[in-house]
């Protein structure tokens, strides 16, 4: 009714019928949009026709949507073994658990539940071959003259470093760091040969002083 009274006032003010009709239909169109928005459903509901229906809780799936005549609500059922649903949902299928393939070098780190995905990881001595970690590869050993700076984890490979002065490595290993040169002094010995990044120092007995021949 208020819209008609406003239109009459506009006509008295000299506005044309075309302009008044345009403004009137715009007003009525906006009003119908507001009326058509329907109910405001919360995060645990979904809209169906002109009513709010309950979503199924985590660990369950929809087996029957709620009827449109408001005679009942959504029907839910637990996820089957080997599948999960982590959130409130209106989906009719649960998501399958990830398979930790032994052929890819994976093992189960955390078993899946009806509300959580299974977690896989690479077996001991291996690491992920890519960011997605669908397969694993053996950890890289550090060769002679190098040592392990950071040991490999299930996600990343070994980090090697060249042995600095005063240390060495004469083996290939994915776990051993560079070893310090031996201290000849601590063994009451003298250094016969200096160490290298590939070898330890060589220690030996200090030479005995020559005795002068006793006078006859």
Tell me what the structure shows.
- This protein is α+β, with helices and mostly antiparallel strands.
- It has three domains: about 55 residues, Tumor Necrosis Factor Receptor, subunit A, domain 2; about 40 residues, Tumor Necrosis Factor Receptor, subunit A, domain 2 (Ribbon); about 60 residues, Tumor Necrosis Factor Receptor, subunit A, domain 2.
- About 15% of the residues lie in helices and about 25% in strands.
- It is built from two helices and 16 strands.
- The strands form eight sheets. The protein has a two-stranded antiparallel sheet with strand order 1-2.
- Helix 1 runs antiparallel to helix 2.
- It is rod-shaped and about 120 Å long.
- CATH class membership of the largest domain: Mainly Beta
User: Into which percentage range does the β-strand content fall?
Assistant: 25-35%
CATH structural architecture of the largest domain: Ribbon
What is the count of structural domains? Answer: 3
According to CATH, the homologous superfamily of the largest domain is Tumor Necrosis Factor Receptor, subunit A, domain 2
Structural shape: rod-shaped
Let me know the average pLDDT. 86
At the fold tier of CATH, the topology name of the largest domain is Tumor Necrosis Factor Receptor, subunit A, domain 2
> Low-confidence parts, pLDDT < 50 over ≥5 residues?
30-35
How many beta-strand segments?
16
Helix content class: 10-25%
Kindly report how far apart the N and C termini lie: 147 Å
Helix run count: 2
User: Order of strands side by side in the largest beta sheet?
Assistant: 1-2
Taking all Cα atoms into account, the compactness measure Rg is 40 Å
Q: How would you spell out the order of helices and strands?
A: HHEEEEEEEEEEEEEEEE
Class derived from helix and strand content: alpha+beta
Could you give a short account of the major beta sheet? Answer: 2 strands, antiparallel
